[in-house]
Design brief:
Blueprint: E1 7-9, E2 17-20, E3 24-30, E4 36-42, E5 49-54, E6 57-59, E7 62-68, E8 75-81, E9 84-85, E10 90-91, E11 106-107, H1 114-117, E12 129-131, E13 153-156, H2 158-162, H3 176-179, H4 182-191, E14 195-198, E15 202-204, H5 208-212, E16 223-229, H6 240-253, E17 257-262, H7 280-288, E18 291-292, E19 295-299, H8 314-329, E20 335-338, H9 356-363, E21 371-374, E22 393-397, H10 398-408, H11 415-422, H12 426-429, E23 439-442, H13 451-454, H14 490-509, E24 513-517, H15 549-567, E25 590-593, H16 602-605, E26 612-618, H17 619-622, E27 634-640, E28 646-649, E29 660-664, E30 685-688, E31 692-698
Parallel strand pairs: 13-14, 13-24, 14-17, 17-20, 20-21, 21-22, 22-23, 23-24
Antiparallel strand pairs: 1-7, 2-3, 3-7, 4-5, 4-8, 6-7, 8-12, 9-10, 11-12, 15-16, 18-19, 25-26, 26-27, 27-31, 28-30, 29-31
Helix pairs in contact: 10-11, 14-15
Length: 700
């Protein structure tokens, strides 16, 4: 549209961002310390500036104006004038075209050319633009609304999940549409998971140092636009927003929830001394970023990423709340996993579980009803707070990962820790009234070794990242069973497969909310790379083509474990089990048994060399059978991490019943209706195989 045909009126400050209506578009942008804001309009090529209009109206700290005649599809950016005074936290520079923090679609990519970082150069031709958008079309789809106690989460990368899957049409691989394709849906439903947790899908930035080395920020924990989906994951580049919404609707139609991994702890602008000015730094650095109180030219770096967003300020807190609501209301997502979530509670500097952000989420009529999952740590001082989040929240439980890995690699003194993790990690979560499902239990996630690599590598192998193998954690509680990396030696392969089955069985037999890393169910490997954040290649992509016979068997066993969990509500109780409640036979709701057939006593818990223990769960004490005749079963799980057979005296089955073997990691083909004849009826002694999990059932 010709600049001389544009008409601007005052507009409204009520809604930040670009909001189209029947006559034009309203623009509103926050800048507390900015002195002048110019709206720059661009042609579709993203380079030709067609108009520059000052937003002369300011209400409070919001500049605003309504431009008649503009429509969805218009590209725009801002130039904000103000003091260039780093000592006081101000880094205004009108040479830099700035992305609207409320942009609902981001056009183009940041080009790493000299004018990007040169403060005297205009960067408009080499930076991204915001696009005005209208609403997406929403299907009349009902959300699954799966209770947390019934949830089984599947963490995946949108691209890496399907890019190498030849069952999915070529044009859809690695995209939102690929996740929603019929082969993908069929696989997820057959596996039995209830929710996909997507690694960041917000518009992102590939760091300059990675681009120079021909790499990408594959994990995308480098958000550039908090309201816009990542266009790179769209098959339909002309309408990525609609494709994302269609993916969510399709998943919902098939009973699957969508949880987004979100990054509100830092932005893609990095360190002010080295990073570019792309958006918030040039709009109002002092309002958006947490600065050193005694030297505001420096950013506080509690995130390890060069900057920390200051959610203790109302402006940033509003942005986060608005962004979250946008993804729920516009796209229908069911919840969020918050990266480095403790940063959101640094109010202003130290972690505070009564932080204003938590209070606003709890009171919000939309956000208080979705799943909220915290990564309860950050690398800043005093940044580890597992179990400290408010009641609405669940948390990634790294103690579960570490303790289960340590138990199965035969570290000493792990019996007590095993019991705590199996019982829902009550020491961490029960104190503030949250249920066992507050503990999101996992064996592996995107960050660290895959499950396969945790039993195949004793050391990290991150050389491909270009950091001389210095990056990534060196403390992985992993083992290689006598050979570092891939091997075809039968005894090592067999030991590794059993090790994986043992850990998966422990995951799905534990109270809490299980999370499975995509690909772990079929033995996916990253060749020992435990920090594959920049590996947008076969290292990180799921290998669907070369799944081994062992991998297919592991998938079948994982499906069996998930189905078993769903079939036995005693594994998903909403209350903690402490052995304080008994049924009519005097049997506790939960009890722990040593191989001698008696309950563990205080002395047993302190034995450093014990590696075998039984857990009995008694549904009759949790919900009396009289209330539900179909319930009332008892399960006994024997966990033996020892390298030898252990003679295990089974507890007397109350009421004269017999124990039926229903799961066995040494016999993965065994099913609930296929108990081996020699163990169909167990009354007393049982020889627990080396390195095994065996589950028995006493029917009501």
């Amino acid at each position: 549209m010709d600049a001389d045909k544009l008409t601007m009126t005052a507009g409204t400050p009520d809604k930040l961002g670009a909001t189209p209506d029947s006559s034009g578009v309203n623009f509103a942008i926050f800048s507390k310390h900015g002195q002048k804001v110019e709206l720059c309009l661009f042609d579709e090529d993203g380079v030709t500036e067609t108009a520059r209009i000052e937003l002369t109206q300011k209400t409070g700290d919001i500049f605003h104006g309504h431009i008649k005649g503009l429509k969805p599809g218009q590209l725009y950016g801002y130039r904000v004038h103000g003091p260039n005074d780093p000592a006081n936290g101000h880094r205004f520079n009108a040479n830099k075209l700035l992305l609207d923090p409320y942009a609902t679609e981001v056009a183009g990519h940041v080009q790493w050319k000299p004018e990007q970082n040169d403060p005297k150069a205009d960067n408009a031709a080499v930076t991204v633009k915001a696009r005005v958008t209208g609403p997406v079309k929403k299907a009349a789809t009902k959300k699954p609304a799966t209770a947390m106690k019934d949830s089984i989460i599947y963490e995946m990368h949108v691209k890496g999940y399907s890019i190498a899957d030849d069952k999915i049409p070529q044009a859809l691989r690695g995209t939102y549409a690929g996740v929603a394709s019929q082969p993908s849906i069929d696989y997820l439903k057959e596996l039995g998971v209830t929710a996909v947790e997507l690694l960041p899908v917000h518009a992102t930035l590939d760091d300059e140092f990675l681009a120079e080395d021909g790499k990408k920020n594959y994990w995308a924990y480098n958000t550039l636009g908090f309201f816009a989906p990542n266009n790179d994951y769209a098959a339909d580049k002309k309408n990525p927003r609609q494709e994302f919404r269609d993916m969510v609707d399709t998943l919902h139609d098939n009973g699957l929830e969508v949880i987004l991994d979100v990054v509100y702890n830092h932005s893609a602008e990095g360190n002010p001394e080295k990073g570019p000015t792309l958006s918030m730094r040039g709009i109002d650095n002092a309002s958006y970023y947490k600065l050193e109180p005694n030297d505001k030219s420096k950013n506080i770096n509690d995130t390890g990423c060069g900057n920390t967003l200051d959610i203790s300020t109302p402006a940033l807190r509003k942005l986060v709340i608005d962004s979250l609501r946008h993804w729920v209301e516009e796209y229908g997502v069911d919840g969020f996993r918050f990266d480095l979530a403790t940063v959101l509670a640094r109010d202003p500097y130290a972690f505070n579980n009564a932080a204003a952000f938590f209070d606003e989420v709890e009171k919000d009529p939309v956000l208080s009803k979705v799943k909220l999952i915290a990564e309860p740590w950050d690398p800043g001082p005093g940044g580890y707070h597992l179990g400290a989040f408010p009641k609405l929240w669940s948390e990634w439980n790294d103690k579960f990962r570490d303790d289960i890995r340590r138990f199965w690699k035969q570290d000493g003194g792990m019996i007590t820790s095993l019991a705590a993790r199996l019982a829902g990690s009550s020491p961490q979560f029960e104190h503030n009234g949250r249920p066992p499902q507050a503990s999101v239990n996992f064996l592996a996630c995107h960050d660290g070794f895959t499950l396969n690599d945790a039993v195949s590598y004793a050391f990290k192998h991150n050389e491909a990242n270009g950091e001389d193998n210095r990056d990534g954690s060196g403390d992985n509680h992993s083992m290689n069973h006598g050979h570092e990396g891939e091997t075809k030696i039968p005894r090592i392969v067999a030991a590794r497969e059993r090790h994986k089955r043992n850990m998966l069985a422990t995951l799905f037999l534990a109270q809490g909310t299980p999370m499975l890393l995509s690909g772990d169910e079929h033995g996916n490997s990253q060749k020992g790379n435990n920090n594959a954040y920049c590996q947008d290649n076969e290292t990180s992509w799921l290998n669907w083509k070369d799944i081994t016979a062992e991998g297919r068997e592991l998938t079948a066993f994982t499906k069996k474990l998930i189905a078993f969990r769903k079939a036995h509500s005693v594994l998903t109780t909403p209350k903690y089990l402490h052995g304080n409640v008994k049924d009519a036979d005097g049997v506790k709701d939960i009890s722990w048994h040593n191989p001698e057939g008696r309950e563990q006593n205080n002395g047993d818990w302190s034995k450093p060399h014990d590696k075998c223990m039984g857990m009995m769960l008694n549904e009759r004490a949790i919900e009396p059978a009289a209330k539900n005749p179909k319930k009332g079963e008892r399960l006994l799980a024997v966990f033996n991490a020892a390298s030898n057979y252990v003679n295990f005296k089974l507890p007397e089955a109350p009421g004269g019943g017999e124990w039926e073997r229903v799961l066995d990691t040494t016999a993965p083909e065994l099913g609930e209706d296929g108990a081996a004849p020699d163990s169909h009826a167990q009354k007393s002694n049982f020889s627990a195989p080396p390195q095994s999990v065996v589950v028995f059932r006493q029917k009501p």
